[in-house]
Amino acid sequence: MAIKLRTVYYATKEKYEMKLLTGNSGLDRLFSWVHILENIDTMDYLHGNEIVITTGIGKDSDQWLEEYVKKVVNSSATALIINTGKFINQIPPDLIKYCQTKNFPLFTVPWRIHLIDIIRDYCNRIFLSEQFAFSLTESIKNAIFHPEKPAQFESQLERNSFDLNSNYAIIAIQGQNFAIQKSSTQFHEQLQLSIEIQLNAYGFVNCIFEIEDAIMIVVNDPFQLKDFAKSLDKALSNKFPSKLFEISVSDEVSSIKKLQQAYKQVKYVMDRIQKHSANSLCFFEDNGINELILAVNDFEILQKSAQRILEPILLYDRDNGTDYTSLLKLYLQENGSIKAISAKTFTHRNTINYRIKKIKEILSLNLEVNRDRFKLMLAFYILDSL
Q: What residue stretches are annotated with the PucR C-terminal helix-turn-helix domain (predicted)?
């Protein structure tokens, strides 16, 4: 769990006499841990997004501090705190300017401040943040699965800046070629942190939790939902190039009381749409007839209805070794254009005409009538979706 540097800095700067030398624009970064590192050669132990602290006890040359600071910045740390007054007395202006160009927060605390107090304080804040997240998750789950019991979630969410009457959406993240829950602890932590960084960049009030090997993100007032989803997709691909992710996105719903609807939508995208999509990012709204399908709670009824419509041609193909079903689907997709079908299948038009005529006989339907064509298109869409 990561927390925002700005919040912690303003809450503790007087207590620890902490001075921000530069990097104010970087205060909205997140940090997930605090490390004391005195040796330049131990920078490889940093994973990124930590606060690094040094007393300068390892200083062995005039160039040491410059090299140290640059390595900390390049390690993707969140900030650096330099304990001044014994081993380091002054921070060179050129070094402050360097951190400024990197938008990197650089702090000092005087020698009389006990570093162990800062570390204990900041780590406790991380632990408390994790406890808060667990409590928040329970409230969000109650809103999803027990919307008829508002007492179990409304007050808790309002206390934590959720607007109950504004829009909500849910984003789900799954592994395509791996199971998130079976991944290493280190990968899991890095994935969580990457998600939190993206959420922080957009300023969303949110809650992250896991269900059935998927990471769910509930977002309140998602004013840039599509942009965020695309940014998240790109960030995860860049951060974990060997992993294939599937990101599913619900529509926005109008209040917390309709969060269950958003959950059903995102589950539908995960379970139905993703398996037919070549894209890692899928939106519920991009598939226009989904709301109609999702409105029918019993998918088995839909499947039986679709199979009943197409049953004559499915049975004919089975008994005669033909593939008229695929030709019919292509005919509907090409809006009845024999020329287009002929070009796509490399088949003579006369042959296509003969087969279409045969399909009409098998189905006892008029493919020139919109009602019959719609019925067939809907049947194909249902079978593809389910």
A: 327-381
